[in-house]
Amino acid sequence: MFIWKKLGKVFTPQEVPGRDWLREFAQAPATLVFDDYVRVYFSCRPGPDANGQYVSYSAWVDLDRRDLTRVLRVAEQPILPLGGLGEFDEFGTYPVSVARDGDLVRAYYAGWTRCESVPFNVAIGMATSSDGGATFSKAGRGPVLSYTQHEPFVLSGPKIRRFDGGWQLFYIAGRKWKLVDGRAEPVYKIRMATSSDGLHWLPANRDLIESRVEPDEAQASPDVIHANGKYHMFFCYRYSSNYRGKEFGYRIGYASSLDLVTWTRDDAKAGLGVSGSGWDDEMVSYPHVFELDGRTYMAYLGNGVGRFGFGLAVLDGELE
Amino acid sequence: MKWHKIGKIFDPSQHALPNGCESFAQSPQALVCDDHVRIYFSTRARDASGKFLSHVAYVDMDRALERILRVADHTVLPLGELGAFDEHGIFPINPVRHGDKVLAYTTGWNRRVSVSVDTAIGLAVSTDGGRTFAREGAGPVLAQSLHEPCLVGDGFVQAIDGVFHMWYIFGTGWKRYAPDAAPDRTYKIGHATSSDGVHWTKEEARQIVADRLGPDESQALPTVTEIDGRHHMFFCYRQSSDFRTNAGRGYRIGHAWSDDLHNWIRDDDQIPLAIEPGAWDGDMQCYPHVFKVDERICLLYNGNEFGRHGFGLALLER
Questions:
Q1: 8 A C-beta contact, residue A52 and residue A35
Q2: Cα angle vertex A203, ends A150, A57, to 5°?
Q3: What SS3 class is residue A223?
């Protein structure tokens, strides 16, 4: 089992003044390392509208590279505007994942639209930054990964990677909408697509990670890192019903692979669970693992799926 | 080209329709069979909220298109599952014979909140000669993409020289034409190709037929056939706003031709279907479908109110 030392919550959106679009939530942290700081992208929300519904934006916070608990600055504006009327990302851009491409930074983000019979649908868009990841321009008004025969809805949670010079996109795809007490709840599984240019994607069309807690287990945040000769995936999973509390809520799982194709799930090894008390004592989710200056860190969400921010943990030892 | 209008040949109110449907017989599309022509269309029921659901049905007619032999009384293709692209309707359906199967390219409708609907193109297959179809996967084969942000639909497929061609429409966006008006959409005709009929490569937002009414022209339901060595496309077009009840802004049938399947020359003058005020198609002519049977070139199409009262036939005079 990996041994993680929790460093506590490092970013609290409620403490950031002067940004109406950043009232609460700092979800799905994803890092980009700079010489002096680590830029952590996250997704946030303004207050709800009159109907209690939220839109979501993505932004970043820069943490001091020498002391990751120290916030240096927060983006003045969201990195992307919401989409136009009837477009796939009209009601949200959440989450986002970034990768360097030469001098550019590319962001893959999930765009949210609202539907009548189910609450939402999601597809994955792409945007490019030429100022080091501060601001981004969308590649188009539509998505780069959308619904297909075998991934019919809810393509979300993109994680972009550049192993061996190619492009790999790990994401989740909806399997079905399950009616729970009259409410449509999405069931989604971890998937993968590959690309030679980052624009045209070939989905593998298979679940990477077997379900464990129940057949309708929902899996999210497939975060892959290569270390010591293998690929390590940290992800989160939850039950399909009553998952907004502690008992059936998100936990962090783990799988490993030698080839990105065959994955062996071993949640007992993940090593980061809920705390006995504090900001992450009901659920832990949306892991993102990154290496920095010889150490391995995990950024993750606690109670309320990031409503009050994200925290960090540092690995005792190495990923192996 | 000179077209002879035969008149309305199918009135949905005169027949029992499956799935509780009572009116509309939209977008007629033909599958020519040995001893009849099966004409698929989309008809409508209302759900519990009073909103329409489009269902697929068909009528079998003799090959002269003079007599109705039977009307489907069963579910030809059920609607999609909760949250799927075709949950709230299938309209239209394009049947394509392929070996001993019949492929159907469907346009699935799903309701949205800020706009009324989005669509995508699905594939279903029949192994019983087109009586029933089963979906190939719960999702679509052609959907929104980077530069086609919404409303991919109206697929019409033909295999030409070993390549599957699909002409279809893609949305260019939604717009409110008045502050308190519901958003209206605009779409244009595009083209995709495939080697297997399943995996498609779009030309990605290339509008292949020029506008006649300007950028706010909506073009729909392309249908293509070869006549005397030249490819002819028929489609319908209208203004993007105030088109439902204002006959001067509603659907008319347009035309374009091509010798290379790439460049299309618009020439609406080649499809002069007479507009006769007061007739079943006096206010609107839409959703054309062209096909050949027994050396005749046939044009099925809808008239007033988007086909609420049925579809008609015109024949090419040669």
A1: no
A2: 95
A3: strand
Report the residue of chain B nearest A125, measured CA to CA.
Answer: B146
Given a contact cutoff of 8 angstroms between Cβ atoms, the answer to whether A263 and A255 are in contact is: yes
Distance CA B136, CA B132 (A): 13
Q: Express each pLDDT in B32-47 by its tens digit.
A: 999 999 999 999 999 9
- Candidates A113, A118, A141, A200: best to mutate against B (most CBs of B within 10 A) is A141
Outline where chain B has alpha helix (H).
304-307
Half-sphere exposure of B257 (CA within 13 A, CB side): 13
Condensed to tens digits (0 to 9), the pLDDT of residues A167-196 reads 999 999 999 999 999 999 999 999 999 999
CB contact under 8 A, A149 and B115: no
C-alpha closest to that of A123 among B132, B120, B36, B81: B120
pLDDT in tens, A47-79: 999 999 999 999 999 999 999 999 999 999 999
Give how far Cα B5 sits from Cα of A56, B191, B275, B279, B316, Å. Answer: 55, 29, 11, 12, 9
Strand order in the sheet with B201-202: B150-160, B163-175, B184-194, B201-202
* Neighbouring residues of B311: CB distance < 8 A, sequence distance ≥ 6: B8, B9, B10, B25, B26, B28, B39, B41, B287, B300, B301, B302, B303
Condensed to tens digits (0 to 9), the pLDDT of residues B200-212 reads 999 999 999 999 9
Q: A174 and B146: CB-CB below 8 Å?
A: no
User: Is pLDDT at B65 greater than 80 in this prediction?
Assistant: yes
Summarised one tens digit per residue, pLDDT across range B156-191 is 999 999 999 999 999 999 999 999 999 999 999 999
Percent helix, strand and coil across chain A, each rounded to 5?
A: 5, 50, 45
Residue numbers in B near A90 (CB within 8 A): 114
Q: In whole angstroms, what separates CA A250 from the centre of its chain?
A: 13
pLDDT in tens, A235-285: 999 999 888 888 889 999 999 999 999 999 999 999 999 999 999 999 999
Confidence (pLDDT) at B296: 97
CB atoms within 10 A of CB A304: 17
Give the H or E element holding residue B253: strand B252-258
Does A180 contact B at CB distance below 8 Å?
Answer: no
**At residue B268, what are phi and psi to the nearest 5 degrees?**
-65, -20
Chain A contact probe: residue of B146, B175, B184, B240 with most A CBs at under 10 A: B146
Residues in chain B with CB shorter than 8 Å from the CB of A114 are 112-114
Q: Is the dihedral of CA B53, B56, B60, B63 positive or negative?
A: positive
Q: Do B173 and A85 touch (CB under 8 A)?
A: yes
pLDDT band at B270 (very low <50, low <70, confident <90, very high): confident
- Report the alpha-carbon distance of residue A13 to residue A60 in Å, rounded: 11
